[in-house]
Each structure stands twice: as C-alpha cells, then as structure tokens.
Design brief:
UPF0750_membrane, mainly alpha, membrane, about 220 residues, transmembrane, about 0% strand, disordered N terminus, YitT family protein
Amino acid sequence: MSTSTRPWRAEPPRGRGPVVSASPSSAGAAHTLVEDAQGIAFGTVMAAVGVSLLTHLGLITGQTAGLAVLASYLTGLPFGAVFFVINLPFYCLGWKRMGAGFTAKTFLAVAALSVLSMLVPRWLDFGHVDSVFGAVLFGLCSGAGLLALFRHGASLGGVGIVAILIQDRTGFRAGWTQLGFDALLFAVALLLLDLRTVALSALGAVVLNLVIAINHRRDRYMAY
C-alpha cells in the first residue's frame, strides 16, 4: 500500500488508477467549474432532502451525519449547526492528504448542507410516509447525493474523507468503510433508541452505502 501524500487531483490513467468512465475517449477529462458547481449543488440538495425525510421519520443514519442527527435529537440543537461543528477536525486530514481543492469543495458542501437542512423543511412538508419506504428512499436520495459529490472531488466530510482516502490508497471501496463505521454507530444507538427505530435506520444506511459501494468504482471514475 502506498504511503505517499499526493494531493487529490486529476492524473492520467495508469495501472490501477481511476478513470472518468469506461470510455477511453473520456478518460482524463477534468470537470469544468460549472460542472463541479452543479454536481456539488445537486449532491447537497439531494442529501438535504434525505436528511429532512430522515428526521421527519425520527430515524438516524450513519457516518458523521449520523453522529450529528443523534446529537441533535439528544440535545435539541439544530442538525445543521451540530453537523458543521463535528466536521471541523476532519478538514486538516483532508487538506494534508487530498489537497486544498478537495478540502475547499468539501467545506462548501458541508456548509451548504448545514444551511439547506434548516431551509428544506420550510420548502418541503412531508405528510404520511411509510417508515420502511421512507428509510429506503432516504438511502437512495442520500446515496445519489454522495455519489455526485465524490465524482466532483468533494464529500460531506468526516468519515467520508477517511473512506475516500482508504479507497484511494488501497482500492477498498468507500462504501464498505462507511458501512463498518455505521455498524459501530448503530450499536451505540441501541443503547439510546428503541429496536425498531434503529432497525429502520440501519436499513436506510445499508441502502445508502450499497449505492456508493456498487457505483463508486475507483477503476472507473475519478473525483476532481
């Protein structure tokens, strides 16, 4: 396993290195500023809708967002504020290991989600939502959002930064790393929440991480 600290940037495809797609004609073509902006905007909006659905159902999720949701439930503080603060320590790792570009995009994505998580409930009001379907829909929405962020050189911070770093260095899928962290988080949640709530929350997290694990392929895509 390489221990180099190369910055997070586009490189010509070689060996096991990632490419933009399976098509040789598109390999190595960097995203434009407009493409990055729309990708990050799409990702954060989808994630914000997912979080709004999650909190409407009274569920939790995994990764750093899961810690923020759980802390929000326990303290009464807004999810957005807690999520933003929890992510602060991870930016140093992102800066050192993945470069300024990745860290700046991730900071913007986290800040945008923190704000949107407070605005979306004013714009979108959920009525009755079946809890099982809602958990699955959360996983699909948030998974799509994270995929967009990953492919445009960003994440939602925290465990996502660590997961992408591990995938970049070892080839071990980011989704599987996040799934392992989620297992620990839900084990703790069992001490605080009822079994049904934790089980439905775990279903949403599994769907989310499967979307990432199956679709975010280092040998097919590169985040810029």
